[in-house]
Amino acid sequence: MTRRWFGSVRSRATLAATLVVALALLAAGAAVLLSLRSDLTGQAESEAASAARAVAVELSDGRPYDKLTGLDEDDRPVQILDERGRVVAASEDLERVTGTGADTARPGDPGGRAGGDADDDADDSDDANGSDGPDDDPAPRGEVDSDTDFSTGTATIDGTTADYRFAAVEVEFEDRGKFTVYAGAPLAAERSAVGTATTAMLIGFPLLLAVVAGATWLVTRRALSPVEGIRREMAAITASEDLARRVPVPATHDEVARLALTTNETLAALESSVERQRRFVADASHELRSPIASLRTQLEVGAAHPELLDLDGAVTDTVRLQTLAADLLLLARLDAGERPGDARFDLGALAREHAEGRAGVTVTADEVPVAGSRAQVGRVLTNLLDNARRHARSAVTVGVRAEGEWAVVAVADDGDGVPEAGRERIFERFVRLDEARSRDDGGAGLGLAIARDVAVRHGGTLTVGRAPAGGALFELRLPRAR
């Protein structure tokens, strides 16, 4: 059952379309999620960088830690670290943090990396922020670094832990060293948006794939229904052997319609071939029956009355049988597609050879080389000369010449010629015009049919027209050998 399902064009087309759409959706979904995450992360980085740089500017102006406005925001974690990694200031509600490189969240938390005692820390704090006394000199300004570094971590504010994108901006003082300001922007919007988009895709993509699969199944079913009709009709033709039937042609003017038209043309050609074969067999049987019956009668009479045996008639009938059998064998080989070969020979010399010894035949032949089967072309010349001799009153002329890329053989007689209406019929097998039949000396009507078949298989033509003397003019054209 599975093999049969996959053996269907409709099922394979549906599966292929669904797979292609699925891959496209996966690629598009991944691109959308990455773009969405990148945009939202970029927004968080911009917010964090803005907050960190604002605190850094205030710090560089010498403002004390408790006066830094950025440390008063409830929803944004901020830390300031000295060059030894100690936390010197932080947001008021910050409880825990990761991603800033500090082990503690606030100054003085246990487990920090600060060394010395509390007095040292207090001294460092006072040094960093300057003195508040009125007689003291103002604290020197620091330099804010133009670069911003980013990291991802977590922060716990008022007992709530969330993911943040941290921006780090450095501030350097000549006398107190380097400080780093960390400010975080929440990634909740990015996490929420990506999660929502992912959920929508997980729900929407299967539904869309189901719609694509169903639509493809229906469309291919409708598109292939004429093909199924053609198949059924061909099966019926095969079962009934009725080649006169034709497959239905859809009115879509597409590949299926052209397939139906080509199938009907093939059926028509096959019907014509079979009919021609049937006529050939029937005509061959008829032509064989007469000489065989005559020969049998003569032999039976000769057996009963030896003195009455007509040996000349028996020999004539035997020759007719031999000739007819040779013609039928040659036609069978031609119908089987026998290749003519590529032997090179002189057509003029061949024409003179076959005309030699025939009374009333005049030959004017140039040297024209051709390629093919010398025996088959010689058979064509023999058939044309025999036909001309049967119908000529007194003279037959043969001319061989080169005409461009063609070698032309013209065989003309001074007889009554061939009526225009019958000039193509005489090349059909077993066809003899009534007038020719009345003067026929035993031909079966295969000579001209064989001649044309040989000419066509050599890449040439054989036609008949009117000769200057009023009789028939047969022209054989073959490609010249290069």
What does this structure look like?
This protein folds into three domains: 35-192, no CATH class; 255-335, Orthogonal Bundle (Helix Hairpins), CATH 1.10.287; 343-479, Histidine kinase-like ATPase, C-terminal domain (Heat Shock Protein 90, 2-Layer Sandwich). The strands form three sheets. Strands 1, 2, 3, 4, 5, 6 and 7 form a seven-stranded antiparallel β-sheet that branches. A five-stranded mixed β-sheet has the order 9-11-12-14-13. With 482 residues, the protein is α+β, with helices and mostly antiparallel strands. 24% of the residues are buried. The protein is 50% helix and 19% strand.
Strand and helix layout:
Elements lengths: L1 H5 L2 H52 L17 E5 L4 E4 L3 E4 L20 H12 L13 E2 L4 E9 L2 E14 L3 E10 L1 H53 L14 H50 L6 H25 L7 E4 H9 L5 E5 L3 E4 L1 H18 L4 E8 L2 E8 L20 H6 L7 H11 L3 E6 L5 E8 L3
Parallel strand pairs: 9-11
Antiparallel strand pairs: 1-2, 1-7, 3-5, 4-6, 5-6, 6-7, 8-10, 11-12, 12-14, 13-14
Q: Span between N and C termini? A: 61 Å
Strand content: 15-25%
Total beta-strand segments:
14
Radius of gyration: 53 Å
**What is the overall shape?**
rod-shaped
Biggest sheet architecture: 7 strands, antiparallel
**Number of domains as seen in the coordinates:** 3
Percent of residues in helices: 40-55%
